[in-house]
Amino acid sequence: MKKLLLGLFLFIITCSAGFAVLPPFYQSTREIKDLLSDKRLAEKLGSGQMILEVNRTEKGYLIITPKKRLEIDVHYHFSKFTVGPSQYEFYFHEPVPVEY
């Protein structure tokens, strides 16, 4: 009986961890909000820049302003025992001037 209860408990714990992440819409919304409120974004682009586009890339995001393009990589910290939204960290590249 103890083995059955222990097995059931472990099954529930492992299954619930797989369903604990946010759906893609809410995860990406959370990432974009965090990215736009990150102080490093303003430092890299300058306060005189208007953001024209925020594009999702393979590695993270691409921010486009009238004068600059800025790539931001998103590194996810995966843990099979973490419940809740995925944890991540932004890595900012140096801005590149936009060429027309």
Describe the structure.
Strands 1, 2, 3, 4 and 5 form a 5-stranded antiparallel β-sheet that branches. The protein has 100 residues and is α+β, with helices and mostly antiparallel strands. 38% of the residues lie in helices and 27% in strands. The chain is elongated and about 70 Å long. The longest helix is centred in the N-terminal third of the chain and has 17 residues, at 2-18. A hairpin with a 3-residue loop joins strand 2 (60-64) and strand 3.
Compact overview of the structure:
It is built from three helices and five strands, in the order αααβββββ.
Give the N-to-C terminal Cα separation.
Answer: 72 Å
**Biggest β-sheet: count, sense, barrel?**
5 strands, antiparallel
Strand content: 25-35%
Overall tally of domains? 1
Radius of gyration: 19 Å
**For the residues shown, what is the average pLDDT?**
83
Q: Compute the number of helices.
A: 3
